Amino acid sequence: MTETPVRKKAVRIDTAFDVTSPATGDVVGTFPIHTESDVAATVARARVASQWWASLSFPQRAARLDRWRSEIVCGTAELAALINSEMGKPVSDAKLEIAMALEHLAWAGKNASKVLGSRSVPSSLMTLNQAASVEFPPLGVVGVIGPWNYPVFTPLGSVSFALAAGNAVVFKPSEYTPGVGAWLVAAFGRAVPEQPVLQLLTGGAQTGAALCRSGVDKIGFTGSTATGKKVMATCAETLTPVLMECGGKDALIVDSDADIRAAADAAVWGGLSNAGQTCLAVERIYVHEAVYDAFVTEVVERSAKIHAGAPSGSKIGPITMPSQVDVIRRHIADALEQGGRAVLGGLNTVAGQFVQPTVLVDVPETSLAVTEETFGPTLTIAKVADMDTAIELVNASRYGLGATVFAKKNATDIARRIRVGGVGINAFVAYATIPSLPLGGVGQSGFGRVHGPEGLKEFTYAKAITRQRFPSPLALTTFARSERTDSIVAVAVKLLHGRTRS
Ligand code: NAD
To answer: Which of 200, 232, 326, 353 could pair with 185 in a Cys bridge, judged by C-beta atoms 3.0 to 4.6 Å apart?
Structure first.
């Protein structure tokens, strides 16, 4: 009897994903979707490598990070082309991004010893017999989950500092820019061939979640606020600490004595560069009524010259994520429905994944275009009667990443009153480019810091060490403590702390 062949039901398990160019739609790469067991094996390798890496001295690690830096410098053209093909930004902007990342990498390697090395601290009057010191050992293995919008600068804010602090790193780049991540990890492997100190995982949310559950000693997350909340929830299962670099709705303030042309230039670059897909992008602007009309005219004139198109010939490229185009459209529509006016662009500027600059005025503060991260080349400009009002409106946001202030007389006072992680006075985003300054947000923009000394300490733990130099004449922490000692302590406490009551 001939057996009827059983038709097996095809079960397709996705083991890889394609990356498509947002400018052309062409497939530009295919990468594996790493599973939970891949993640576990990678973290296990990192655990071994972390012990070797941590055993090196600061100068030995710095020398290896310098070699990695050289690899990146030599490959800048190739890396910039890869950024361009995967996420669409113009090559010259990609090169600028790489240059900025190199500045931070150099700083981290050079300063780790000074910031994290053991240092003596004074003891107190009651503990004079103790020598006290503090040092900052590495955590062990750090997982870094990155976004696509600055696929070198942003993840390296965590990766470079975690490595310089002595940790091994497992890096999962965005599924939109895995090739950039792979390039950086391969370059590190050439510079540091001894052990897999920096490794790559590719995939989307599930791979990221597996990394959160893998037992790494910290997750450095950069991405949207919504995903940040999921990452925190997953990390809570294993009490894995997290650094959260999340979204923003940054504002630019223009006072009546500001240099209007310079303010407009910063507003246009801050709002439109990278097609507005910058966590620190200027999305809303508050302008003193005395200079409002002149400022709007200047911004519109400059923005009208910026065209989104095929990156080689344009100042700005496409919107990287197809789903973001709908968000941008919804925010513009909401602003217009609520009484706003488009003085440049508007809904008709959205064509495929290219969005032309849009400048909106008279938009109510309740509109999505003012309250939510748009992540597109749009600006809202609002007229205010004074700087107190401007500050109040800026601080009304649930986000608190960065801000820019254009002013003369009261610039510093205004900057101090804004509740954000960084403020640039008379220049856009300078605080993110100065290596010795910390970068990060408050509120829904996240917590923790990359860059600067704080960024190094973020990937360590503070360890306190005391050494008894001689037995204390006042034996306090012993059952042999006498009544006489208690009386001396009572007198000492009064002398030291009792004079505060008036
Ligand atoms: P996203 O939140 O969609 O993704 C970020 C990363 O998280 C990706 O690698 C993604 O694969 C991963 N991920 C998604 N779901 C996950 C899950 N459940 N568990 C673990 N990992 C998960 O963000 P994006 O679209 O890639 O980036 C844009 C966002 O990033 C914007 O909101 C922007 O403001 C923000 N951003 C912030 C900073 C900063 O310094 N604060 C810098 C750059 C970008």
So the answer is: 200
Residue 246 is a catalytic residue: no
**Percentage of the chain surpassing pLDDT 70?**
96
pTM for this entry: 0.95
Residue-by-residue DSSP string for 283-300: EEEEEETTTHHHHHHHHH
Q: What is the mean pLDDT of residues 130-159?
A: 98
Annotation marks residue 235 as catalytic: no
3-state SS record for 204-270: CHHHHHHHHHCCCCEEEEECCHHHHHHHHHHHHCCCCCEEEECCCCEEEEECCCCCHHHHHHHHHHH
Q: How far apart are CA 34 and CA 173, in angstroms?
A: 12
- pLDDT-derived band at 310 (thresholds 50, 70, 90) equals confident
Split at pLDDT 50, 70, 90, the class of 9 is: very low
- Choose one of 172, 174, 212, 227 to mutate for the ligand 1 pocket test, by most ligand atoms within 8 angstroms of C-beta: 227
Confidence at residue 484, expressed as pLDDT on a 0 to 100 scale = 95
Q: Is 210 in the pocket of ligand 1 (CB under 6 A)?
A: no
Q: How far apart are the first and last CA of the chain?
A: 106
Q: Is the pLDDT of residue 6 over 50?
A: no
CA of 223 relative to ligand 1 center, distance in Å: 2
CB 28 within 8 A of CB 179: yes
In 385-480, DSSP assigns E strands to 399-400, 402-406, 422-425, 442-443, 446-447, 463-468
d(CA 22, CA 268): 23
Distance, CA 85 to ligand 1 centroid (Å)? 19
